[in-house]
Amino acid sequence: MRKLVLVTAAVFMASALSACSASDSETPQSSASAGAWTTQQQSYLQEIYASGLAANDVLPEDVYIGLADIVCQGLTQGTKADALLALLATTAEQNGLPATDRAVFGPTVAAAAVTYVCPENITKLVE
Predict the structure, then answer these.
(1) Which has the closest alpha carbon to 63: 103, 22, 123, 121?
(2) What is the Cα–Cα distance from 57 to 29, expressed in whole angstroms?
(3) What is the largest CA-CA distance in the chain?
């Protein structure tokens, strides 16, 4: 079951982060459902965009929301934080994020997710 979750997460992140090669005409916040985010999701997105990640130039809000969901669901289902962070880092590397950004991408996304979207999992991230 855990492998299925990680494989599903990897497939989602690989397709989501492949947006890194999208054209510059696409703006990160041009999501059709951007107005539908909860207060917690909006706070999460504000934290992500305030972080200044290079991925912010190419990843739309809905991709970041999906990544938060993967982090939260993974932690809820018992996936170790290290595995989730490694998955985020590997996927970021495979999709061309600069080395300086890969080191902080996973921890930034995961920390913002457990802070705003699923605070009940915050202890699972720091264990």
Answers:
(1) 22
(2) 9
(3) 41
- Amino acid identity, position 87: L
DSSP class of 60? -
How many domains does the chain contain in total?
1
Q: Helices (H) and strands (E) in the chain — how many of each? A: 6, 0
Print the SS3 string covering 71-93: HHHHHHCCCCHHHHHHHHHHHHH
pLDDT tens, position by position, 38-90? 999 999 999 999 999 888 887 889 989 999 999 999 999 999 999 999 989 88
Separation of alpha carbons 122 and 87, rounded Å? 18
The whole model's pTM is what? 0.74
Tell me if 82 is assigned to some domain.
Answer: yes
pLDDT digits (tens, 9 = 90+) for 13-39: 544 444 443 433 343 444 445 568 999
Tell me if 122 sits within 8 A of 71, measured CB to CB.
no
Can you give the length of the chain in residues?
127
Residue 32 included in any domain: no
User: What is the span of the domain harbouring residue 81?
Assistant: 41-127
